[in-house]
Amino acid sequence: MSPRILDALPKFTRRTLCATGLLAFAITSHAADYPTRPIELIVPWAVGGGSDAVARAFADVAGRNLPQPIIVVNRPGASGSIGHTEGANAKPDGYKLTLVTPEVSLAYLQGIGKTQWQDFNYVARINADPIALVVKADAPWTTLEQFLAHVKSQPGKTTVSNSGVGATYHLAAIALEKKANIEFNNVPYIGAGPAVIGLLGGQVDATFATTGEVGVHVQGGKLKMLAVMSDKRLKDFDQVPTFKERNIDLQLGTWRALAAPKGTPPEVMATLRKVVDKAAQDPGYRDFFKRQYLGLVNEDGDKFRVTLERENAFYVDTVGKLALGK
After folding, report:
1. What are the beta bridge partners of residue 135?
2. What is the dihedral sign for C-alpha 39, 40, 42, 46?
3. Which residues are within 8 A (CB) of 225 and not within 5 positions of it... i.e. 6 or more apart?
4. What whole-number distance in Å separates Cα of residue 127 and Cα of residue 106?
5. Roughly what angle, to the nearest 10 degrees, separates helices 144-153 and 168-180?
6. Which among 36, 139, 150, 288 is least surrounded, fewest beta carbons within 10 Å?
7. CB–CB of 206/185 below 8 Å?
């Protein structure tokens, strides 16, 4: 803007424009040296779940490729909307990032939170896993059919834990109820980690989770998977059938993506993108995902936005059909 035009504006307007310009200049200037202090990574879920595990693994390897560490901060509650909201509203300077999960769309569509997936700039999707139905190893059901028959015989009595009201795992439970014409007693926890602990402790009869939360327990003989909501059987659990094989067409999963607030400088986003690329090639990082039965993904943020648009349309339709939040 030229000095002549600027002088013609009201004093308040001139001050506002100058302040805004100075802020933009300050953020851009600092972006060139990014990062000069520790970076905070918000996880919208409790310690012990798949999101927490992914975040800490990434923070560990990323810290070795940056001059400053990444510190994981758990902000669970309200189906992820507490953490998502804090992350979206943070100063767009790259020092507060968020590990975004599908609940950023699900919570908003159910009226639980006000933050939407469009409120972030996405660096990359770094993980994706299908959802499985899991029971204790000593449970009386060895097949999906046996479990569903038991649930149908006593509607509303079989307790099934999930990671929170309106969260992805809760959606999986409700979708199965509709498909199989059954009724669970859905028990919400403050994250997938606590939900799985509830199953291990005998507080509930079953849970919906991904292999990232239950894989080690399944292989260790404490839990067993009855079926998985994927298009094909999983490599590490090839004895477990898909729901589709059992004539229940359900394919649902979760993902984790590294994101920054809208308005974050391109230089910062580019730096973070390089860190994700380096992490994806790190042998220790890759081995961790393999040992924890987590799906390792490295999908560029711009490409991932296309996936998000398509997925959001699916959630709009699904949430409406299942009457969630009503």
Report:
1. 206, 224
2. positive
3. 132, 133, 134, 214, 218, 237, 240
4. 18
5. 80
6. 36
7. no
Higher confidence at residue 1 or residue 264? Answer: 264
Nearest C-alpha neighbor of 98 from the set 75, 68, 132: 75
- Give the pLDDT of residue 281: 97
Q: What number is the average pLDDT over the span 281-294?
A: 97
d(CA 35, CA 94): 8
The beta-strand segments (E) located in the chain are: 39-43, 70-74, 96-100, 120-136, 159-162, 185-188, 206-210, 223-228, 253-261, 296-300
- Can you count the helices (H) and strands (E) in the chain? 12, 10
In this prediction the pTM is 0.85
More confident residue, 17 or 148: 148
d(CA 312, CA 320): 12
Residues 6+ apart with CB under 8 A from 54: 99, 126, 127, 212, 256, 294
How far from chain centre, in Å, is Cα 137? 27
| CB burial string 45-63: b at 16+ within 10 A, e below | bbebbbbbbbbbbbbbbbb
| pLDDT band, residue 68 (cuts 50/70/90) | very high
